[in-house]
Amino acid sequence: MENELTCLENRERSWLRFNERVLEEAEDERVPLCERLSFLSIFQSNLDEFFMVRIGSLHDQMLLDKEARENKTNMTPGEQLDAALTRIRELCHRRDRTYAALLEKLREQGISIVDFRSISAESEQYLGEMFKREFLPLLSTYIVGKKQTFPFLKNKDIYAVAVLSTKADKKQKIGIVPCGTGVFPRLIAVPDRTGCYMLAEELILHYLPVLFPGYRVASKTLARITRSADIDADSVYDEDLNYRDHMAEVVRLRQKLCPVRLELSRAIDQDVVERLCAQLRLSLDRVYEYDTPLDISFLYGIMDTLRSHAELFYAPRHPQDTPDIVDQRPVMDQIAKKDVLLHYPYQSIRPFLRMLSEAARDPQVVSIRMTLYRLARDSKVVEALVEAAENGKQVDVLVELKARFDEENNIEWSRRLERAGCHVIYGVEKMKVHSKLCLITRKTPEGIQYITQIGTGNYNEKTSRLYTDLSYITANRAIGEEALQVFQALILGETVDHMQTLLVAPHCLQDKLIDMINGEILKAQQGGKGHIRVKLNSLTDKTLIDKLIEASQAGVQIDMIVRGICCLRGGVAGLTENIRIISIVGRFLEHSRIYIFGDGEDARYYIASADWMTRNTLRRVEVATPILAQESKARIEHMFDVMWRDNVQARDQQPDGSYIRRYPGAKPALSSQNWLYDEAYRKAAESR
Fold first, then answer.
1. Cβ pair 636, 596 in contact under 8 A
2. β-strands 531-536, 593-597: how paired?
3. Which residues are within 8 A (CB) of 116 and not within 5 positions of it... i.e. 6 or more apart?
4. Nearest residue to 219 (alpha-carbon basis) of 167, 264, 286, 168
5. In 154-192, which positions are buried (b, 16+ CB within 10 angstroms) versus exposed (e)?
6. 3-state SS string for 397-439
7. H-helix or E-strand spanning residue 656
8. What is the torsion angle, in degrees rounded to the nearest 10, for the CA atoms of residue 260, residue 266, residue 272 and residue 278?
């Protein structure tokens, strides 16, 4: 057992290593300044979500069974919490140093973030008058005492906290003022100093004495709490409720879940901290004091003021048209003759959107079926589906209302689709539908024709410019017929049990992957070369991890590109010495999932919506499709090779689970994302 544990990694620790790689991008002086600001903001929003989801989940596990042990490193929930919180403090200190360094860089660009210690008396007078005129009428105050209950503090909102005293009552009271998240602009321009800003919460904090007349403000700080978001939508489901109304209630419930973190901008009396923790039912180890503002999303506003300075940003890149689709001909007619593989963001999502719009108007199209998980704010996909329904097509849409943090958006989209006449369904009980699947059925003179699209990412025009994803569009009949079976099962609230061509979770994915890994093991045992190449966001499935360890021990070469969580350590002697793992973190979020088994003519290529996590392989509806067209196979082989040779954004995982960034050294610099974009530009130009 002890030997086995040396090649397994704790999930939470691995995620924190990933967020450390995001922080590295903010630290990297080779990255343009404003992009470094963006990475720092992403680091913080990632950490917020980690507390809301993972720390919240561990907190719940402790309440259920303190002695339960996770299946990778045998740690209890308490041990995982202690390890995670300790590491988070280290990363936050590093974040604070990075923020201070970036402020210095901003000052060189004429941008400053200040407080009242560094402004003139004239500026202070101006801000004081503005506070009384524009802030004071809109602010609420609370004093915590016997007659006043402790106010409800919203998740991630900022509050000014004052320690109050009077001559008549020596016992200190706590005053709390909501800092108006969404009410006031965060960045307040300081007069007479171009490019100089003060944060709205700092302005409110300074004028707390005005808000609490009759009290002396003994000390003060800014505070922000993070609440758990780990709510099981199905566990609180009432069958008498409409499911969409139920999910709206779940969203409201989430806002009231227990706090898991208290952040402070300044030190205040320890007894006051203890009183706050008692009210919030938080232990003191969940209190964090920072030098960095509690919410640094205002950095995006700073970036907007610097847009005219092109050198502070990445060079503009625009998704290119694929050479495989000609504008002058209907897309579906072209797909009928040739499969098409789109690679976002290097290639545009436009051919797929065009195909949907054509399908909405094509008299031969009988039906459109689609799964929707996350959508853009102004979704062209929804517009096409609405048009199709209004034109009399049968439109079946599975809208996943349990897409975390997108529930409210999806509820609204489902209402709009229903109003247009679409048949909207909400999936399988106690299971998310995470697949990216679209099926267009046509009735032609030659018979029924299926056009199937299967992707690795959401039908979201915005993220298709920011995430790397793959979209395979084919008229292959076997794929179309099995896609139809998937939809027929989903409409009945069920899942498919058997598939010949597609890999479909929860029943027909993990076991098929194990079979293909076994196939590579058999090759190695028979003296041949077993080879597995996989690109994922996350790897946590213990069953698949154990099988990969077995394959490595049998001599199978395993190359893995895992962006985020990776609970397997490669390069451990005697166990995973044939496994190499890299992570790529760069300008675009690596989101595509690729599975390749074997080499040469016998190699099998798949793209999928599923990471190798137990939740994806056994507890969600996911779809992986084989890539059948030789040209598309060659492209996937090529793109994996380019990413594997990256020596700019790639990090090599070490046997202890840490990562070391690659640098070009004597070799030419190869950033896979830049390479693939340059290639897309070149091929688009050649096709023109």
1. yes
2. antiparallel
3. 124, 198, 202, 206
4. 264
5. ebbbbbbbbbbbeeeeeebbbbbbbbbbeebebbbebee
6. EEECCCCCCCHHHHHHHHHHHHHCCCEEECCECCEEECCCEEE
7. none
8. 0
Torsion of CA 654, 656, 659, 664, to 10 degrees: -30
For residue 316, give the DSSP letter: P
Beta bridge partners of 219: 163
Q: In what order do the strands lie in the sheet with 196-199?
A: 112-113, 196-199, 187-189
Residue 242 pLDDT: 59
3-state secondary structure of 535: strand
Q: Which amino acid is at 637?
A: E
In sequence order, the β-bridge partners of residue 242 are none
Q: Please name the CATH architecture into which domain 1-108+299-313 falls.
A: Up-down Bundle (1.20)
As a CATH number, domain 331-491 is 3.30.870.10
Domain span(s) for CATH 3.30.870.10 in the chain:
331-491, 503-687
Cβ atoms of residues 585 and 24 within 8 Å: yes
Q: Are 177 and 208 in contact (CB under 8 A)?
A: yes
From CA 53, how far away is CA 155, in angstroms rounded? 13
Tell me the C-alpha distance between 579 and 558, whole Å.
5
The answer to whether 3 and 74 are in contact (CB under 8 A) is no
Q: Which residue among 59, 246, 434, 591 is the active-site one?
A: 434
How is residue 638 written in tokens? 């090529």
Amino acid letter for position 232: D
Which phi and psi (to 5°) does residue 258 adopt? -65, 145
Q: What are phi and psi of 634, to 5 degrees?
A: -65, -40
343 is catalytic: no
Supply the pLDDT for residue 246. Answer: 54
Which residues of the chain fall short of a pLDDT of 50?
1-2, 233, 235-241
pLDDT digits (tens, 9 = 90+) for 632-686: 999 999 999 999 999 999 999 999 999 999 999 888 999 999 999 999 999 999 9
pTM of the model: 0.93
Q: What CATH number should be reported for the domain whose range is 503-687?
A: 3.30.870.10
Structure tokens at 133: 């005129």
Question: Can you tell me the distance from the alpha carbon of 322 to that of 465, in angstroms, rounded to the nearest whole number?
Answer: 14
What residue has token string 């320890």? Answer: 270
Structure token digits, residue 489: 């099962």
Number of helices (H), then strands (E), in the chain: 21, 27
State the residue for tokens 């003021």.
305
What residue ranges of the chain are covered by domains with CATH 1.20.58.310?
A: 1-108+299-313
